[in-house]
Amino acid sequence: MRAFTVNRYGKTGNELQAADVPRPAMGEHDVLVEVHAAGVNVLDAKIRDGEFKLILPYRLPLILGNDVAGVVVRVGARVRKFKPGDEVYARPDKGRIGTFAEFIAIHESDLAAKPKHLTMTEAASVPLVGLTAWQALIEIAGLKKGQKVFIHAGSGGVGTFAIQLAKHLGANVATTTSAGNIDLVTSLGADVVIDYRQDDFETVLHDYDVVVNSLDDATLMKSLRVLKPGGKLISISGPPDPSFAREIGKPWILRPVMRVLSHRIRKAAKRRGISYSFLFMRASGDQLREITSLIDSGIIRPVMDRVFPFESTNEAMAYVERGRTKGKVVIKVK
């Protein structure tokens, strides 16, 4: 099958390589999916560049890709929820990524039926950002009606989804974006929109319950000023904390490393009576089914920027890395 692989880690001149590789092996609980479309994420670039090799030691060469929509072609002996011909979508488990390919094997617990009214390309844009928003706002934040949440980068992939989910939960939503995207984030439900090129969010926003950060460490530190005591700062861009090491079952020797990496932000948060959490979202077919119901009900809609052909996977990656996308970028494989 055709696939795009990472052959070595590195940031400079390290494009993915087009390759012919064997179809993935299947376990008894696995579902073989013919990939129709694959979402492209900043996470893909970070994995390619080696930023996660300490906590996600993939064996190279590695097929990249963390979002998929496609059709079931075969199921393992103990699979009960899916059958050949089903249209599905997923964010594969972090240890079994590889959606930039014609086929991928996914554990049935990580898979869900595709939303009925979405195309394959639209569906492929949802899993990673949808699960990230769900786990940040519902699992960690426990966001409630009437609370105030500040979501950085509202016009990006996570931002466009998180704004809609937060509004569905009844929260008051603030976000940052550029002037050209103000109408977009307002249409998604943002109540307060800050043009980051004109204003400093930390001087405008006060007494928020939750902040979801997807930007750099400097922005993370500034976000503390927005929160009230007892507030929650959730970062999907790091730094990882010791609880994350325990969660992913890493050896005890890595926990002090993560403690050091997150020491500054955890200390600053504690001083203000704020909790800090790092979120590296996990695969979940059950949560995807909840997300599917919101999409099928018209409560949440995917926001798409561009669709690239499979052979232009490297161009799609470069486009996402420029950091100016409106919603998601997707590769059309079939």
From TrEMBL:
PANTHER family from the UniProt entry: ALCOHOL DEHYDROGENASE RELATED (PTHR11695), RETICULON-4-INTERACTING PROTEIN 1, MITOCHONDRIAL (PTHR11695:SF294)
Alphabetical list of Pfam families matching this protein: ADH_N (PF08240), ADH_zinc_N_2 (PF13602)
Keyword Oxidoreductase tagged: yes
Enzyme class: oxidoreductase
Transmembrane segments: none
InterPro entries: ADH-like_N, ER, GroES-like_sf, NAD(P)-bd_dom_sf, YIM1/Zinc_Alcohol_DH_Fams
GO MF, one example: oxidoreductase activity
Residues of the Enoyl reductase (ER) domain: 13-331
Keyword Protein biosynthesis: no
Keywords from the UniProt entry: Oxidoreductase
Stored Gene3D superfamilies: Medium-chain alcohol dehydrogenases, catalytic domain (3.90.180.10), NAD(P)-binding Rossmann-like Domain (3.40.50.720)
Protein name: NADP-dependent oxidoreductase
Enzyme Commission (EC) number: 1.-.-.-
